[in-house]
């Protein structure tokens, strides 16, 4: 394992730099995935078939809380990566932990939101609009859920084995993923929620 | 017994029962054979757990040939049913199922793995790499493809085949009109295989962008590697659309959502759009690597460097861009209006320009070349005119006003077979013949090979040219029969005979493999075709590490230059080589995915949840695993190299 010390730890081996590029390409595919979901959403948004439409369904308070939680988590994971580059294991683990807790908070509010929608008579089977609404939000939420476990495993590995080139690489890639979910959420917040409430 | 009723076939026939027995006997024979010859350990160690790109390539190849047989049998049954008017060989339901599976199997489970086979085997060798960027992910890609294909193939004996066409348009594919689980199989099997393909796309993009040997800049890459790079970029950006489309379709069928339904606001046309936003780029995922193969072969056997290298590269990039801008030409008649149709008409016709550039480049490469007609070259020479006919009829179909006459007729069927068979299938068979000596250490028989090419071409013309005529005359595709008064009878009989001749051609390939295994010389050296690129610079058989020393490259054809101008490829001395370890996880994960898909198809929720957990457990295990691979020592390399040099 050749380690190049002139590069940040997460890029320091050949395998590491391959993985970072591979993950960026994967994020390209993810953009297409969410892009397709958004295109489908905009196609179906007015097809409510007599069921609730977006203006009736959406409420600003929970969505704002979700947005703040997720944006804050994007900041804390940035701090986590910064701590990792300084070699401060405890600070890194703490920031990763806070990130995941914020993610968990986001998920709780999202689930609460989903329950509210169902109470207002909007299930995934109600209309084309509710089908794609739940699917787009659910796909994002599933990504956050997966990210929660992924991040948890990385914290455990850093705890066990320290900040090695492999762990730094995993943590850095995970941070790319987490930032990406934040970007997707900004689109959801702007174009699904805010536009839907207008 | 209610639980088991769902596994019964909705439209049984003696042929299907016979197939069940045949499948059962084959499985028993394989298990018994492996046990009798004590090959289980060998199979597990050398193949099921391998992460070597060459072996994965060969496994793709075997799967592709098996699926070619399956899809071919489907094709013969279709042509036999249509050979005479009012035939009773198949009923409408069986005919629907067979043309649906024929399409899916041939495109997704034959052509795709065939291309993956050549990409896996050839690309790392062409760029002088030791393996792909993510060897274990590569193994997982293969097993997901394989399990997806197997899941799709058991549909006709368990629960019923998909019957809504390979495009599976809604509302026909919805629960209302497709009651059997067949369309569930379609959605979920393709989903599993598609995830594998997406991972291959990421893997090969990374490999080609980051792992080229010293000196090989992007514009010095061999043409097949270039075509693979472009195809993989298309994979990465097109397959997620399919992932979404299939997921929405699955939810419509299993969870009662309303994406593509005709009630509650659903929009059936949305499926057609999503499907073809993936589907049209998919066509170019197939044809671009085929163009790459032909470029290699034409340049090798014309003994000239490829004419217009840069224009070849740019035409592929332009084709890749256009491939995302033409999808609506698949449904000009669905009423999206004159403006939209005109735009898609123009973008579609525009694709003919870069494609024409490529055709002329091949012709100019041949011009004044010292042409040697080998079997791969014969495929290439047949490809150019036949493919051009397909291209010209494609431009005819691109005219949206005229398309109202051609739409959903046999004219269309003739067109896309006309580009896919001489384009993709010939390229794959040519590539198979061309790379066979590198894969297996002996050559396929040339005489039988040339017979095969001629039979395929004659059969092809006889089978598909009549369809242009009956299509213009109004014979609809996907109709299981027609009346005698239409006058289609003789033309369809000609098609049937043509299909039979093609079947003989394909059978000859199998015979050729058998014949060559028995009689071909094993003393062929490492460069039997006098070729030009790096994959021929290493030994045959290729050692595990591909190249003992990474080659130094200074031109587009480094191996040719090393042979003719004496440029030294391998400078320096042996160093220990880092290689990845084998792993059983990809195979196990593939098996779990198979069980997952099967439970999903039938909506059996408890195993579905358990297998979902199983998949994530595999991923978690991988996360915690420490695997730094292993090193091959200098002594071992010297030993292998001496042995292989002696053999040559």
Automatic annotation (TrEMBL), chain A:
Its EC number is 1.10.3.-. It catalyses: 2 a quinol + O2 = 2 a quinone + 2 H2O. It comes from the Bacteria. Residues 1-197 form the Heme-copper oxidase subunit III family profile domain. GO terms for molecular function: cytochrome-c oxidase activity; oxidoreductase activity. It holds the Pfam family COX3. Gene3D superfamilies: Cytochrome c oxidase, subunit III, four-helix bundle. The chain crosses the membrane at residues 21-43, 63-81, 93-112, 132-156, 176-194. It is found in: Cell membrane. It is a multi-pass membrane protein. GO terms for cellular component: plasma membrane. GO terms for biological process: aerobic electron transport chain; ATP synthesis coupled electron transport. Keywords: Cell membrane, Membrane, Oxidoreductase, Transmembrane, Transmembrane helix. Belongs to the cytochrome c oxidase subunit 3 family. Catalyzes quinol oxidation with the concomitant reduction of oxygen to water. NCBIfam families: QoxC (TIGR02897). This is Quinol oxidase subunit 3. It comes from Peribacillus deserti. The gene is qoxC.
UniProtKB/TrEMBL annotation, chain B:
Its EC number is 1.10.3.-. GO terms for molecular function: copper ion binding; cytochrome-c oxidase activity; heme binding; oxidoreductase activity, acting on diphenols and related substances as donors, oxygen as acceptor. Heme A3. Belongs to the heme-copper respiratory oxidase family. It comes from Peribacillus deserti. The chain crosses the membrane at residues 15-37, 58-78, 98-125, 137-158, 185-209, 229-249, 283-301, 313-331, 343-364, 376-399, 419-436, 448-469, 489-514, 579-598. One of its GO terms (cellular component) is respiratory chain complex. Keywords: Cell membrane, Copper, Electron transport, Heme, Hydrogen ion transport, Ion transport, Iron, Membrane, Metal-binding, Oxidoreductase, Respiratory chain, Translocase, Transmembrane, Transmembrane helix, Transport. NCBIfam families: QoxB (TIGR02882). It is found in: Cell membrane. GO terms for biological process: electron transport coupled proton transport; oxidative phosphorylation; respiratory electron transport chain. It comes from the Bacteria. InterPro entries: Cyt_c_oxase-like_su1_dom, Cyt_c_oxase-like_su1_sf, Cyt_C_Oxase_1, Cyt_c_Oxase_su1_BS, QoxB. This is Quinol oxidase subunit 1. It catalyses: 2 a quinol + O2 = 2 a quinone + 2 H2O; 4 Fe(II)-[cytochrome c] + O2 + 8 H(+)(in) = 4 Fe(III)-[cytochrome c] + 2 H2O + 4 H(+)(out). Residues 38-554 form the Cytochrome oxidase subunit I profile domain. Its cofactor is ferriheme a; Cu cation. It is a multi-pass membrane protein.
């Amino acid at each position: 394992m050749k380690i190049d010390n002139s590069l940040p730890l997460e890029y320091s081996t050949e395998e590491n730099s391959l993985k970072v590029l591979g993950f960026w390409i994967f994020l390209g595919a993810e953009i297409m995935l969410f892009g397709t979901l958004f295109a489908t959403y905009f196609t179906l948004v007015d097809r409510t078939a007599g069921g609730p439409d977006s203006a009736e369904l959406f409420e600003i308070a929970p969505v704002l809380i979700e947005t703040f939680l997720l944006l804050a988590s994007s900041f804390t994971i940035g701090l986590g990566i910064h701590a990792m580059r300084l070699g401060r294991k405890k600070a890194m683990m703490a920031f990763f932990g806070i990130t995941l807790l914020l993610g968990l908070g986001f998920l709780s509010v999202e689930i609460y939101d989903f329950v509210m929608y169902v109470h207002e008579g909007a299930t995934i089977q109600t209309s084309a609009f509710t089908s794609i609404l739940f699917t787009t939000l659910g796909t994002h939420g599933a990504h956050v859920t997966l990210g929660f476990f992924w991040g948890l495993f990385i914290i455990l590995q850093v705890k066990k084995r320290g900040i090695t080139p492999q762990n730094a690489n995993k943590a850095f890639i995970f941070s790319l993923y987490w930032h990406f979910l934040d970007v997707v959420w900004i689109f959801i917040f702007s174009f699904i929620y805010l536009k839907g409430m207008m | 017994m209610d639980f088991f009723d769902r596994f019964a076939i909705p439209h049984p026939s003696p042929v299907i029962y016979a197939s069940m027995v045949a499948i059962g006997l084959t499985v028993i024979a394989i298990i018994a054979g492996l046990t009798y010859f004590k090959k289980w350990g060998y199979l597990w160690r050398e193949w099921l757990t391998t992460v070597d790109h060459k072996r994965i390539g060969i496994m793709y190849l075997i799967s592709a040939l098996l699926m070619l047989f399956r899809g071919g049998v489907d094709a013969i049954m279709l042509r036999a049913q249509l050979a005479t008017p009012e035939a009773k060989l198949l009923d409408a339901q069986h005919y629907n199922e067979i043309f649906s599976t024929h399409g899916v199997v041939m495109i997704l489970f034959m052509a795709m793995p065939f291309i993956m086979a050549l990409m896996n085997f050839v690309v790392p060798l062409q760029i002088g790499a030791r393996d792909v960027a993510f060897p274990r992910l590569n193994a997982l890609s293969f097993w997901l493809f394989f399990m997806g294909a197997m899941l799709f193939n058991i549909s006709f004996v368990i629960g019923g085949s998909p019957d809504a066409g390979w495009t599976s348009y809604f509302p026909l594919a919805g629960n209302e009109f497709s009651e059997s689980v067949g369309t569930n199989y379609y959605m979920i099997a393709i989903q599993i295989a598609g995830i594998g393909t997406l991972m291959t796309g990421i893997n090969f993009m990374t490999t080609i962008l980051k792992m080229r040997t010293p000196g090989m800049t992007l514009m010095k890459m061999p043409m097949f590697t270039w075509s693979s790079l472009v195809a993989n970029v298309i994979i990465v950006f097109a397959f997620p659309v399919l992932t979404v489309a299939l997921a929405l379709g699955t939810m419509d069928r299993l969870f009662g959502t309303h994406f593509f339904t005709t009630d509650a606001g659903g929009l059936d046309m949305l499926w057609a759009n999503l499907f073809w936003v993936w589907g049209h780029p998919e066509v170019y995922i197939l044809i671009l690597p085929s163009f790459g193969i032909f470029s290699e072969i034409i340049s090798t056997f014309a003994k000239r460097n490829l004419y217009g290298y840069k224009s070849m590269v740019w035409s592929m990039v332009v084709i890749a861009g256009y491939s995302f801008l033409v999808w609506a030409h698949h449904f000009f008649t669905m009423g999206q209006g004159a403006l939209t149709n005109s735009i898609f008409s123009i973008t579609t016709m525009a694709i003919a320009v870069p494609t024409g550039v490529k055709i002329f480049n091949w012709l100019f490469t041949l011009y004044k070349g010292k042409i040697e007609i080998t079997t791969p070259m014969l495929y290439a020479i047949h490809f150019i005119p036949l493919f051009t006919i397909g291209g010209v009829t494609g431009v005819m179909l691109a005219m949206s006003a005229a398309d109202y006459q051609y739409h959903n007729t046999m004219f269309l069927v003739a067109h896309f077979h006309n580009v896919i068979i001489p384009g993709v299938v010939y390229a794959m068979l040519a590539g198979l013949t061309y790379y066979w000596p590198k894969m297996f250490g002996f050559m396929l028989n040339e005489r039988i090979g040339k017979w095969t090419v001629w039979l395929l071409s004659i059969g092809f013309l006889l089978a598909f040219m009549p369809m242009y005529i009956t299509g213009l005359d109004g014979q609809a595709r996907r109709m299981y029969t027609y009346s005698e008064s239409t006058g289609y009878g003789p033309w369809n009989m000609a098609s049937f005979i043509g299909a039979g001749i093609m079947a003989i051609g394909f059978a000859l390939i199998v015979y050729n493999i058998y014949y060559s295994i028995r009689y071909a010389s094993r003393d062929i050296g490492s460069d039997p075709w006098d070729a030009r690129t790096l994959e021929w610079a290493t030994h045959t058989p290729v050692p595990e590490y591909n190249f003992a020393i990474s080659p130094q490259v200074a031109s587009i054809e480094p191996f040719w230059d090393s042979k003719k101008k004496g440029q030294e490829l391998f400078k320096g001395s042996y160093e220990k080589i880092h290689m990845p370890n084998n792993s059983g996880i990809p195979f196990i994960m593939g098996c779990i995915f198979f069980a997952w898909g099967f439970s999903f198809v039938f909506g059996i929720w408890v195993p579905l949840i358990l297998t979902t957990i199983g998949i994530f457990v595999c991923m978690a295990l991988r996360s915690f695993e420490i695997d730094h691979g292993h090193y091959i020592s200098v002594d071992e390399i010297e030993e292998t190299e001496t042995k292989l040099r002696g053999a040559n």
